[in-house]
Design goal:
Layout lengths: L11 E4 L2 E4 L2 E2 H8 L3 E5 H14 L5 E6 L6 H9 L3 E4 L2 H9 L7 E3 L6 H10 L3 E4 L2 H13 L4 E8 L21 E2 L3 H10 L3 E7 L10 H19 L6 E3 L16 H14 L6 E4 L3 H4 L3 E11 L6 E4 L8 H5 L5 E3 L15 E5 L8 E7 L8 E4 L20 E6 L2 E6 L4 H4 L10
Parallel strand pairs: 4-20, 5-6, 5-13, 6-7, 7-8, 8-9, 9-10, 9-11, 11-12, 12-13, 15-17
Antiparallel strand pairs: 1-2, 2-3, 4-14, 14-15, 14-19, 16-19, 17-18, 20-21
Bound molecules: pyridoxal-5'-phosphate.
The site of pyridoxal-5'-phosphate has 16 residues, from helix 10.
């Protein structure tokens, strides 16, 4: 591995002036496949997964990749082959798991708004568990399963009411959230679930938010969940597994989340101390497995200097990289080819807002970025683009979604073709008549 000057992204590095992902020069990928282009490092994904696997060594544990972070089939293949299950939030995601060769029995189904049709299909496929998010959902799932002569495996997602200290749009375990069953109502909900013949209670689930960079919310949530486990079992409902959700953050901008193995050493110590260490454990990490495995390569189209702002207009936009527009999120942006140091004096000291071509002022990717002597035609890499980018991409402005490449050592595989404009309106119908 070359010298790494991009902390938190061990598989993105410069060799001389050029930016590489593993052993592949990103500029070569852009020349072959065009821009905007997402590239993902397989080694980076497996490295992130390995931290969890080390943390759980010798334990009865299963890692369910929360695939909404990046649901591209090739990414799912990597995790399925590495032994992961999947956390899904729609039946479309289950179909992706099956298309990628994953086993439905390893799937857990989360989400506040499962439809009856989704429940039916998931039951027929034999998924591992439904993470139920309300008492109303318990009743409907019971009806659907009973009508099929089945018993649905369920755990209830509890809302531990801890503050994950993250962006309000991605915190999910607080009282004002739409997610999960309130702490005070949990024991009653479990009593009800145990009484319904179409359900089979198998576990308890909690997921408190995303991009969590502190360990204390996890430790607090673990205490609250274990208090509930004790209360639920005292009420006569045994729980086979404890699912602790996902949410661990990544380094976007000098963030220092705990390492997965270090965090789990502490959480397991707590589980052991409270006598729950030999339960089946489950987790649902998404971002922390893929976020820093991905980059988005984009070409500078125009520089537009201004009195108040300088704009660097690139060919990627909010439809490709929605996180800045949605959460004012930060992505580091690196030129693919660094300006040589002896040219440093001549560098343009200007800072730029990096923006896309979409007709919205919210279409920005980075603000006030020093990009050295950037020029039209240069290529930039938007870092930490593996999670919640392509999976949230849209066709706004009739922009086809970007192509995707999976990098594996010195090899690269095109895993998603660039969408054409025709692809974006393929399912539309013209009105009849002249
Ligand atoms: C989104 C989600 C996850 C994964 O969250 P990350 O922050 O990507 O790790 C896990 N569980 C549930 C229920 C989710 O909705």
């Amino acid at each position: 591995m070359p010298h790494n000057d991009l902390p938190g992204r061990p598989f993105v590095a410069r060799r001389d002036a050029d930016l590489f992902l593993e052993d592949v020069r990103l500029a070569d990928l852009a020349a072959t496949h065009g821009t905007p282009l997402f590239a993902y490092s397989k080694a980076s994904m497996l490295d992130a997964l390995a931290a969890y696997q080390r943390g759980f060594a010798g334990r009865n544990a299963r890692i369910h990749y929360a695939m909404k972070a990046n649901s591209s089939l090739a990414v799912l293949q990597v995790f399925a082959r590495a032994g992961c299950g999947f956390d899904i939030v729609s039946i479309g995601e289950l179909r992706r798991v099956v298309a990628a060769g994953g086993d439905p029995a390893t799937v857990i189904f989360s989400g506040v708004g499962k439809t009856r049709a989704e429940m039916r299909e998931a039951l027929s496929a034999g998924i591992g568990c439904f993470n139920v998010e309300s008492t109303a959902e318990l009743e409907v799932l019971h009806e659907v399963a009973s009508a099929m002569g089945l018993r649905a495996p369920v755990s209830i997602r509890v809302n531990p009411n801890v503050d994950p200290q993250t962006h309000p749009y991605i915190s999910t375990g607080l009282k004002g959230n739409k997610f999960g069953v309130a702490h005070e109502e949990t024991v009653d909900a479990y009593r009800r679930a145990a009484a319904l013949s179409g359900l089979r209670v198998v576990g308890i689930d909690c997921h408190i938010g995303s991009q969590i960079t502190q360990e204390s919310p996890y430790l607090d949530a673990m205490d609250k969940v274990l208090d509930l486990v004790a209360a639920i079992e005292a009420a006569g409902v045994p729980l086979h597994h404890i699912d602790f959700g996902g949410g661990l953050g990544i380094d976007y901008r000098g963030d220092t989340p705990p390492a997965a193995d270090a965090l789990w050493a502490k959480l397991l110590a707590k589980l052991d101390a409270r006598g729950y260490g030999d339960r089946q454990l489950m987790i649902e990490p998404g971002r922390s497995l893929v976020g820093n495995a991905g980059v988005c390569v984009t070409e500078v189209l125009y520089l537009k200097p201004g009195e108040q702002k300088n704009f660097c207009i690139v060919d990627a936009a909010m439809n490709d990289l929605p996180r800045p527009a949605m959460y004012e999120a930060f992505h580091a942006i690196e030129p693919l080819r660094a300006v040589a140091d002896d040219a440093g004096a001549a560098r343009d000291a200007a800072v730029f807002d990096v923006v896309g071509p979409i007709c919205e002022s919210g279409d920005w990717i980075g603000r006030d970025r020093a990009l050295g002597g950037v020029r039209a035609g240069d290529l930039l890499a938007v870092l930490s683009a593996g999670a919640y980018c392509m999976s949230m991409a849209s066709n706004y402005n009739t922009r086809g979604r970007a192509a995707e490449v999976l990098v594996d050592g010195g090899q690269s595989h095109l895993v998603r073709e660039r969408e054409t404009p025709e692809d974006t309106f393929r399912h539309e119908r013209l009105l009849p008549g002249a």
